[in-house]
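Long-time lurker, finally posting.

We've been working with Putative signal-recognition-particle GTPase (Rosa chinensis) and I want a structural starting point before designing mutants. I don't trust myself to interpret raw outputs, so I'm hoping someone here can both generate the structure tokens and explain anything notable. Sequence follows.
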Amino acid sequence: MTKNVAAMEEALVRILTPRRSTDILRDVHAAKEQRKPYVVVFVGVNGVGKSTNLAKVAYWLQQHQVSVMMAACDTFQSGAVEQLRTHARRLQIPIFEKGYEKDPAVVAKEAIQEATLNGSDVVLVDTAGLMQDNEPLMRALSKLIYINNPDLVLFVGEALVGNDAVDQLSKFNQVGAALSMVYISGAPVMFVGCGQSYTDLKKLNVKSIVKTLLK
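Top reply, 14 upvotes:
Generated this for you. Predicted structure of Putative signal-recognition-particle GTPase:
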């Protein structure tokens, strides 16, 4: 490895190592001690596999003996509730739903209340796929987050969207997309999806990603 390549690798590792870190399992257990569910809201643009990745995270939590409830808060897009319901059935996870044309902020609030009553450790909230120029959906998402104050908001980005994902984040994996998003937002990459099955979810290995970039 030349000196220039080594310097580049060091710089990329530094960029991909976030300025703040999140330990989901630790935070879930901390919320459980306070007798309240840990709430995660999934956001992202249309077509990036938001619901599928929500289901992958649900499966990952199950493997760590964490009880999960799904909340169907995409009340705008036809088929979204049914899709989430299918994942819930396959994973044998309860789902809170109110159908379509409802206020997603209210649905999320009621889901959290239900999870508190039934003792669910985590609520995973699905939301409508967004585009940064769709003001009504952006306002609905802002209201949902403002009212419910989730513990974590996960942005689901797609490798193929490239630097457009940065624009989505500022207004609201070729590996380079992940690099750009981490650099701009300062937020960590929590998981990397690597397939369509529920097991196809990995924690980010920064050094492995950097080596891929430099090939």
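Before you design anything, note these points.
The two ends are 12 Å apart (CA to CA).
The mean pLDDT is 83.
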